Amino acid sequence: MIKNKTLIIGFGRMGISHASQLGLILRNSDIYVYDPSFKVKVLIIVLSLFTRIRYTNIGTKSDMSGFDHIFITSPPKYQENYFNRIKDKNTKIFVEKPINIQNILNLNELPKNIYVGYVMQHVEAFMLLKKVLNGRNCSSAYILMETNSDLTNAHGWRANSFDGSIVSEYGSHMLNLFSFITEQECLIKSSRIDKKNQIDLDLELKSQLTTGLLVLKYNSKNVRKTNYSVKIRCDDDIFEADLYSFKINGVTKFELSQEKSKTNTYLRGAEFSRQMENFLDNNNFSESLRLALSTKEALYDYKKKFDNTWR
Amino acid sequence: MTIKRNSIILGDNPFFSISHSGFNKSREYLTDASHLEKSINVVKTARELNIKNFMISSHPDAVDFLYKCGYDKSENDLPNLSLVLPDVHSQNTKSANNGIVSIAAPMLISGIKQILQNPSSLRSGFLASAATGVLMEWISGFPKSKIEYILLHNIYVDLLIGLGGYRLLRIFEDAIRNLGYKPGFITLNPTQFDKYSSKNFVLCTYYNLNGYNIYYDFSDLQKLKKQKNIDLWAMGILASGAIEINKALNDTNLESFDKILYATGKKERLIDFVSGLK
């Protein structure tokens, strides 16, 4: 059996999680890890004594060829630097959101080998919703993310950064998901942040839909686990989906707790396993990249329009 | 099918919002008056129903919570505890704020402290001593005589399985045994333990008739139980409420499990569950 070589750049929570997920799914991969922090480097070296991961120093190498897969999980401001050093066009690259590689891409001819980690696209109910909506005329949408987390006191790269703000971190998931489901790009038309712990964003859609509202509720005491939900009206039907179920006109068509799990491994959630399998099994990710870039554009357009109000 | 009451373990997930929140959020959740009252009622009801096993997270508020439920301060009065380590709430908050090293460094320091305080522990090796030190720190504050099992949290177990870190799991298992407790692992990838070198430990995993959250083949799990003489504990047998209690409890596959974990935030549900036992 030919061994795969994988490189993971950045050993934070996402880097560790990808390394482990990969190890569960791909038994024949050598997993190399790089992190620029000295302390993290020591941790990786200690872990390498007991696990499959190995430390590799790419800090000074200009070319990072020879890897089948590279995961860039470092903060956005470092992504360009790593990305520029991947010369091998056959290497599949997984970039964690929020992406920051738009300035070095030829936007007229997007590469096929770059995958962006928007995991909500792999939630079963949302995948079903996308399938059912295919070709239908939709007139309105209500998108909600409600979480007990609060990024207003974020640490690390998220602190004082638009990429780490509530609109970007939480909103990007939902904007991306919405574009994935409806296959429509959108911009943010107006923004209201007058309610406590809630940001309402009016979406301006580029084609069919007439209205769209994206609501981000943070620091909410109503939820234990983050709630992601989408409600779309098409013709005379109402479609609703969240992490656990899919309904048409209030009638449940899919309920996760009634279903046998469709992946063979579990880490963080079945959608993470499906995302990894999708990345490993396919070779053309231009749609994933296009959607991620469109999400990025919508967010930066928002930042430009509402510069004083973003948090 | 007969399930004995003493094979039921009351789970604490609904009380502490396990795994879904950072430390402060979990504390807010626990101290919210109406939520706290409901949780206390569940534990009091469990006591009245003679359920003597309680799986509890190592959240710093966990023991206080038990005393609020009416147990007196003598350790004898408390239920038998299956303690889940480490406290993922605090660790999640720490790693989000200060990076992954902020979790690993204190572990190393506790290990070194243990070795300095008890140099003879080094005979079993540096890592074994370090693991013992880490465990001692994690369980400090808990009523030791009532801890029966110590289980490693599934976030750690499944991360380490994916990384191929079976040796680290073994080091912790041995340290748990050395401290006089029975070791166990909570996992959603139980059949991956076929590569694990030890025997006679507890594996706690999802099982239900719907196949919800089950990422293994049941016959493989049965084989593993036999090969390694493990105790199997089932959790999620109602598939988040999607399966009727009686239907779930009449499932003959439950015979393969030695204990059943049941967690609810409503005392009425607990009463219904227990009355479904034969």
What does this structure look like?
- The complex is a heterodimer of chains A (about 300) and B (about 280).
- An 8-stranded mixed beta sheet of chain A has the order 8-9-10-7-11-12-13-14, with helices on one face.
- The radius of gyration of chain A is 20 Å and the shape is globular.
- Chain A is an alpha/beta fold and about 300 residues long.
- The relative contact order of chain A is 0.15.
- In chain A, strand 13 (about 245-250) and strand 14 form a beta hairpin.
- Chain A has 7 helices and 14 strands.
- The model of chain A has no long low-confidence stretch (mean pLDDT about 90).
- Chain A has 2 domains: about 5-95, NAD(P)-binding Rossmann-like Domain (Rossmann fold); about 120-310, Dihydrodipicolinate Reductase, domain 2 (2-Layer Sandwich).
- Chain B has about 280 residues and is of the alpha/beta class.
- Chain B is built from 12 helices and 8 strands.
- Chain B has helices spanning about 15, 25-30, 35-50, 60-70, 90-100, 100-115, 125-140, 155-160, 165-180, 220-230, 245-250, 265-275, and strands at about 10, 55, 80-85, 145-150, 180-185, 200-205, 230-235, 260.
- In chain B, helix 10 links the parallel strand 6 and strand 7.
- In chain B, helix 3 packs parallel to helix 12.
- The longest helix of chain B has 17 residues, at about 100-115.
- The mean pLDDT of chain B is about 85.
- The chains are: A alpha/beta (about 300), B alpha/beta (about 280).
- The interface of A and B includes residues 20 and 22 of A.
The most extensive contact between chains is: A-B, 43 and 41 residues
Regarding quaternary structure, what we see is heterodimer
Order of helices and strands of chain A: EHEHEEHEEHEHEEEEEEEHH
Largest sheet of chain B: 8 strands, parallel, barrel
Between the first and last Cα atoms of chain B, what is the distance in angstroms?
8 Å
- The helicity of chain B comes to 40-55%
Q: What's the arrangement of strands in the largest beta sheet of chain B?
A: 1-2-3-4-5-6-7-8
Broad structural category of chain B:
alpha/beta
Q: Average pLDDT across residues of chain A?
A: 89
